[in-house]
Fold:
Amino acid sequence: MAKAPAPDTDFLVERARRGDAAARQELLARHRDRLRRMVGVHLDRRLAARVDPSDVVQEALAEAANRLSDYLRERPIPFYPWLRQLAWDRLIELQRRHVGAARRSVAREEPGVLNLPDESAAELAERLVDHASSPSEHALREELRARVRRALERLAAGDREVLVLRHLEQLSTAETAAVLGLSQAAVKSRHLRALQRLRGVLGGKSAGEGA
Structure:
């Protein structure tokens, strides 16, 4: 017999709002991997030996558990963007505490975006470059990936931000809109504009546009 599909987040939110304790627990547990992915994407590599992404996520989930009743009563934004914001705030606090003394504040350097570690920048470039299979195509793809990484550094923070959210964190348009405080139409427009500017910086070389 086929296994029943897991309830979606909105359904769990409604059950939790009605007092279902199991739904509250599942809400917090089901996004653990997504949060760990987000923290891993943005974590400054100078902190890698001292900060475990799982610990950041656990602290964010503990805070979420304490504030969940308020969220369920008000529901200001969709659940995952709310949960992500708690982990994001914790990550910024950690990076400012451990790295901030040797650099300008994160907020001043990148409004809304922590400086992207090299590995994450490389992964973003990979996601924006068409895949190739033959050795010659592979070499060309590697060259293009390096060019994409350099081009990303030249983009405005807002353009880079939407590309990171959509292609690295793989947020939906609706989730991205909630994170950025924009309409979904504005997110789609910004995403398209960022890709167009990236192509412009690359001098017309193609980059995948994503969904």
User: Anything to note?
Assistant: The chain has two domains: 11-109, 118-201.
